[in-house]
């Protein structure tokens, strides 16, 4: 397909695209995690010299956007950031027309974050270049799940058999969905914890073997990994559970964290809200790998970009 001529019929996503964890085979997950180990952000590897990576962000982002930008540049690629504010997107340009424009100006891969679930899949079905999902609505955030798995493996020998507890707003969390799919495929045992308003019983249909607990103490007891999710105050408005009630029942405190295994990891995808979903001392405790997660996002996303461009050898 010519770079200037839009594809008008749907097709399969270009090789190297990363749209979600649910459809990604376990073998590809393992391959990406192994490749990430070979990546050193401090030492530039010109694997993608001459390539252009377009970062298309319809939502605000600090960690993910910066991480992809640093990762691309560490591989020798050129990067261009496109945000909705001040662009043709703000004037009402459609997602596909924006995608065609970016392809026409020479994009070799597009990293996209969008508030609507399925937006990266739509783009990928019309473009002949890899599309990487950096978060789509309440659907998935595949690279966050991959970097979390990478972080866990830095401390644990394997994912299989680990007891992993996820606490918080599971209903709205694309991070949780991707993590659940990945950890389940890896053989971890998952417990979800939160109030019914933020964790409906139907969550158990995501994958087989999921367990739901309404008690934070019970959910955390004996866990190898405790993952806390951000809770937005505005999402509690109008629900039966109030902010003080949520804090009382589900906030991660040191007393609750001590119910997990002594070497349990405390994780959070960020941004963290101290005093809401976790206390200040928990955020900074020796078991916390929150800052390490951010650091590990770069080598992991270097692996994702190398795979996208066929440079994963």
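Sequence proposed for the structure above (313 residues):
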């Amino acid at each position: 397909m010519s770079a200037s001529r839009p594809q008008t019929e749907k097709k399969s996503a270009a090789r190297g695209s990363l749209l979600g964890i649910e459809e990604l085979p376990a073998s590809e997950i393992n391959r990406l995690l192994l490749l990430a180990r070979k990546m050193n952000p401090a030492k530039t590897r010109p694997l993608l010299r001459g390539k252009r990576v377009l970062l298309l962000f319809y939502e605000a982002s600090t960690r993910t956007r910066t991480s992809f930008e640093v990762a691309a540049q560490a591989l020798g690629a050129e990067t261009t950031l496109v945000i909705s504010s001040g662009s043709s997107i703000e004037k009402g340009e459609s997602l596909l027309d924006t995608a065609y424009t970016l392809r026409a100006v020479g994009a070799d891969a597009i990293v996209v974050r969008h508030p609507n679930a399925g937006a990266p899949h739509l783009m990928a079905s019309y473009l002949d270049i890899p599309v990487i999902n950096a978060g789509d609505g309440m659907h998935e955030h595949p690279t966050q799940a991959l970097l979390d798995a990478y972080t866990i493996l830095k401390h644990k020998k394997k994912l299989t058999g680990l007891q992993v507890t996820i606490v918080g707003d599971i209903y709205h969390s694309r991070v949780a969905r991707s993590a659940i799919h990945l950890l389940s495929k890896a053989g971890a045992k998952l417990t979800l914890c939160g109030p019914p308003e933020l964790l409906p019983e139907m969550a158990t249909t995501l994958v087989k073997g999921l367990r739901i607990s309404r008690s934070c103490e019970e959910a955390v007891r004996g866990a190898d990994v405790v993952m806390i999710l951000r809770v937005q105050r505005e999402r509690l408005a109008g629900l039966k559970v109030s902010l003080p009630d949520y804090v009382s029942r589900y906030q991660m405190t040191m007393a609750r964290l001590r119910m997990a295994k002594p070497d349990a990891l405390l994780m959070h995808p960020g941004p963290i809200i101290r005093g809401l979903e976790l206390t200040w001392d928990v955020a900074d405790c020796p078991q916390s790998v929150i800052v390490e997660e951010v650091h590990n996002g770069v080598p992991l996303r270097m692996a994702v970009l190398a795979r996208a461009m066929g440079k994963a050898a």
